[in-house]
UniProtKB/TrEMBL annotation, chain A:
Ranges where the PITH domain occurs: 1-134
Cellular component aspect of the GO annotation: cytoplasm
Coiled coil: none
Organism: Aegilops tauschii subsp. strangulata (Goatgrass)
InterPro entries in the record: Galactose-bd-like_sf (IPR008979), PITH1-like (IPR045099), PITH_dom (IPR010400), PITH_dom_sf (IPR037047)
Name of protein: PITH domain-containing protein
Record family assignment: Belongs to the PITHD1 family.
From TrEMBL, chain B:
SMART domains, alphabetized: UIM, VWA
Domain of life: Eukaryota
InterPro entries assigned to the protein according to its UniProt record, in alphabetical order: PSMD4, PSMD4_RAZUL-like, UIM_dom, VWF_A, vWFA_dom_sf
GO cellular component, one term: cytosol
VWFA domain boundaries: 5-189
Keywords: Proteasome, Repeat
Biological processes, Gene Ontology terms: proteasome-mediated ubiquitin-dependent protein catabolic process
Source organism of the structure: Aegilops tauschii subsp. strangulata
Protein name (Swiss-Prot/TrEMBL): 26S proteasome non-ATPase regulatory subunit 4 homolog
Coiled-coil region(s): none
Keyword set includes Repeat: yes
Family that this chain belongs to: Belongs to the proteasome subunit S5A family.
């Protein structure tokens, strides 16, 4: 069976680059915050967000759920398993472990996206780059 | 405490030879850098600071972010001045150095000293600023030395692009009588966002009066261990006094309040002692004198400490039982007087004394002189003690002969 991995997140190491200080990563990940419709994660200078999530133990990632408005929500999400020291400058140097194009149904209906399970068997930390549309 | 990793970019270009800041732009800058390194490492021991050059032999990192102040200060020696500063490249390299910091929880910060003219466009600088903001890096700029119409405006634009909730700052320091360091001490570059660490505040106060004083009269750069040790012992003392006062405050007996007064008075004495140490240290570096002061302090502390602990313990116990309180008080008073009488009670126990005498080498309990001694035991108190010890000495001497 699958469990929500929120309990396995090592909060001391969670980082989100280019987040709007008023709309931070906790709004998207933390229980209580993420259910609140009024709270959301937003990017700052441009449309890219880089989220780094370490886990307290090795996990297998099965699927991810993205929720957001159609226009301003993420369009493309690239996931990288077990990468350190990623910045916007070098994130495109590596091939992503998986790449997801989100449709409106994903965002609005909160349909979880099944990932390439085989690529996420041994995840200690995961980096997620999300790009919004035009 | 704010946890930071800082990269300091030094302008060591040809423009730094100018003497409009005394003794030279470069030296004034070096002093300021030393001060900043000290302040950062002191405000949080887990902070790291790195240093790099923007000119001279080129943009290069002299020391990657470390919490070892000695290592940081050492790398400042023997820096050559020359060539032109490359601001954009330097900021990029600084960013890279910060990205690879070991402790991800440290907030990233770059401090740039720019004394030469700025050759880059405002647009380019804004892009750089945006990139820093996107990567969550704060930026402080010290604008000094060369000045033209565009330089302040360009640098302001850079800071505006980076700034996110007032984490980035710019300071313009015109040439003049004041040292670069003195001007910087009172700026947010030193004091940080939370509005000041103890070090910065006291250094600022000292700078204002014109003296270069530090918290404990010891230059943390010259002897960081001593300064740290003094500061730690001050804090420990304060914490201890607070704990004792708190304990006493939990009580509402008169006894408690009187012992608290005693403790407070003693606390004042010990707290004042460091101030005396401080004054003496300024006059005289002699280690022996310092040791003496420390001994005096610890002795005073020892006496008051023992009394304070005893009082506190008494107060707590007495809270439960009035009779107990009375008994305790009596016993404390008697304790001093009762020293000898306790001894005499011990010696009244004949069998005990016999066993002691047996254990002394060369004493035969059947010896008539010893028998006389035992007979005269009862109620002899102090005199007996002396006699016994005298006997022991005599016996020892006879054995040794």
């Amino acid at each position: 069976g699958q469990v929500d991995l929120v309990d396995f997140i090592d909060w001391t190491g969670v980082e989100c680059l280019n987040q709007d200080p008023a709309h931070g990563i906790a709004n998207a990940l933390k229980q209580g915050y993420r259910e609140d419709e009024g709270l959301h994660l937003a990017s700052d200078s441009d449309e890219q967000l880089l989220i780094y999530i370490p886990f307290m133990q090795v996990i297998k990632l099965h699927s991810a759920l993205f929720k957001g408005p159609e226009e301003e929500g993420p369009k493309t999400v690239k996931l990288f398993s077990n990468r350190e020291h990623m910045g916007f400058s070098n994130v495109n140097d590596f091939p992503p472990s998986d790449s997801v194009d989100l449709s409106s149904s994903h965002l609005l209906e909160s349909k979880p996206v099944t990932l390439k399970y085989v690529k996420f068997q041994n995840v200690r930390r995961y980096v997620h780059l999300s790009l919004a549309g035009g | 405490l704010l946890l930071q990793s800082t990269m300091i970019c030094i302008d060591n270009s040809e423009w730094m030879r100018n003497g409009d800041y005394s003794p030279s732009r470069f030296q004034a800058q070096a002093d300021a850098v030393n001060l900043i390194c000290g302040a950062k490492t002191q405000s949080n021991p887990e902070n790291t600071v790195g240093v790099m050059t923007m000119a001279g032999k080129g943009v290069r990192v002299l020391v990657t972010p470390t919490s070892d102040l000695g290592k940081i200060l050492a790398c400042m020696h023997g820096l050559e001045v020359g060539a032109e500063a490359n601001l954009a490249a330097a900021i990029q390299v600084a960013q890279l150095a910060l990205k690879h910091r070991q402790n991800k929880r440290q907030q990233q910060r770059i401090i740039v000293f720019i004394g030469s003219p700025v050759t880059y466009d405002k647009k380019v600088l804004e892009t750089i600023g945006k990139k820093l903001k996107k990567n969550n890096v704060a930026l402080d700029v010290v604008d000094f030395g060369e000045t033209d119409d565009e330089k302040p405006e360009k640098l302001e634009a850079l800071i505006a692009a980076v700034n996110s909730s007032d984490s980035s700052h710019i300071v313009h320091v015109p040439p003049g009588d004041h040292a670069l360091s003195d001007v910087l001490i009172s700026t947010p570059i030193f004091t940080g966002e939370e509005g000041g660490s103890g070090f910065a505040a006291s250094a600022a106060a000292a700078a204002a009066t014109g003296a270069t004083g530090y918290d404990f009269g010891v230059d943390p750069n010259v002897d960081p261990e001593l300064a740290l040790a003094l500061r730690l012992s001050m804090e420990e003392e304060r914490a201890r006094q607070e704990a004792i006062a708190k304990k006493a405050a939990e009580d509402n007996k008169d006894q408690a309040s009187s012992s608290t007064d005693a403790i407070m008075a003693e606390a004042e004495l010990t707290l004042n002692a460091p101030a005396d140490v401080d004054a003496d240290l300024l006059k005289d570096d002699d280690d022996a004198q310092l040791l003496q002061q420390a001994l005096a302090m610890s002795m005073d502390e020892g006496a008051s400490g023992a009394a304070a602990v005893a009082d506190a313990a008494m107060a707590e116990a007495a809270a439960d039982d009035q009779d107990l309180a009375l008994a305790l008080q009596m016993s404390v008073q008697d304790a001093e007087a009762a020293g000898q009488s306790d001894m005499s009670k011990v010696f009244e126990d004949r069998s005990f004394v016999t066993s002691i005498l047996n254990s002394l080498p060369g004493v035969d309990p059947n010896d008539p002189s010893v028998k006389d001694l035992l007979a005269s035991l009862h109620g002899q108190g102090e005199d007996l003690v002396l006699m016994v010890t005298g006997k022991q000495n005599y016996l020892q001497n006879s054995i040794n002969k």
